[in-house]
Amino acid sequence: MQSDVDRYCHLAIEFQYAQKDLQGRIDTRIEALRPIRAVLSGFDFWQLQDHRRRCAPGGSAPRPLLAAYLRAKLTDAAIADTRRAPVPFVAGDSEVLCRLDRHAPCRLHLYHWTPPERPHPVSAGSWLGAALIGMAEGQVVSLRGLPGAPADRIEVLATTPAS
């Protein structure tokens, strides 16, 4: 049986060779954001894989730039147990207090496939969800210049696991 570490290492190598678009070019807009600092649970890692496949060309909801961003995030992310992480990070079922650009903070609820019965649900497979998932409290990410991105700057102020 293959260990989780071996499986993640193999996937990282696979992603390294899959970062080119269909014409063999590397998207410099995504490469400019790297390395993408993120901590993902094993569950979120595999769910984001599914989101990436759906966004890839030929997927059920093709958005190639978002697929490239998810691929880069998955490649750069550290995998950790949410209960043992030294710093709270945004998971696929988290409630997040964040600031988009310089607007007032807003409280969002992340999910993977079924929206929660709570206000302001955000899919992890959307630009906003893809940017937020894996971020630590106090972390800021810039998506400036990416078409379709919800904001130029996203800051996580606080995160709590879903109750």
Task: Characterise the protein shown here.
This protein is an alpha/beta fold and 163 residues long. The protein starts with a helix and ends with a strand. The model is unreliable at 1-23 (pLDDT under 50). The longest helix is centred in the N-terminal third of the chain and has 14 residues, at 42-55. Strands 5-4-3-7-6 form a 5-stranded mixed β-sheet. It has 5 helices and 7 strands, in the order ααβααββββαββ. It has 2 domains: 4-79, no CATH class; 94-161, Chitinase A, domain 3. The chain is globular, with a radius of gyration of 15 Å.
List the helices and strands and how they pair.
Blueprint: H1 4-16, H2 28-31, E1 39-40, H3 42-55, H4 64-76, E2 78-79, E3 94-100, E4 106-111, E5 121-123, H5 127-132, E6 140-142, E7 153-161
Helix pairs in contact: 1-4, 3-4
Oligomer: single chain
> Please, how many helices?
5
Written as H for each helix and E for each strand, in order along the chain, the element string is HHEHHEEEEHEE
- How far do the termini sit from each other? 34 Å
Rg over alpha carbons: 15 Å
Number of domains: 2
Beta-strand fraction estimate: 15-25%
- Helical proportion? 25-40%
How confident is the prediction overall: mean pLDDT?
Answer: 85
Q: How many beta-strand elements?
A: 7
Using the alpha-carbon principal axes, give the shape.
Answer: globular
List its traits:
163 residues, two-stranded parallel ribbon, 20% strand, Chitinase A, domain 3, alpha/beta
Short description:
The protein has 163 residues and is an alpha/beta fold. The protein has 5 helices and 7 strands.
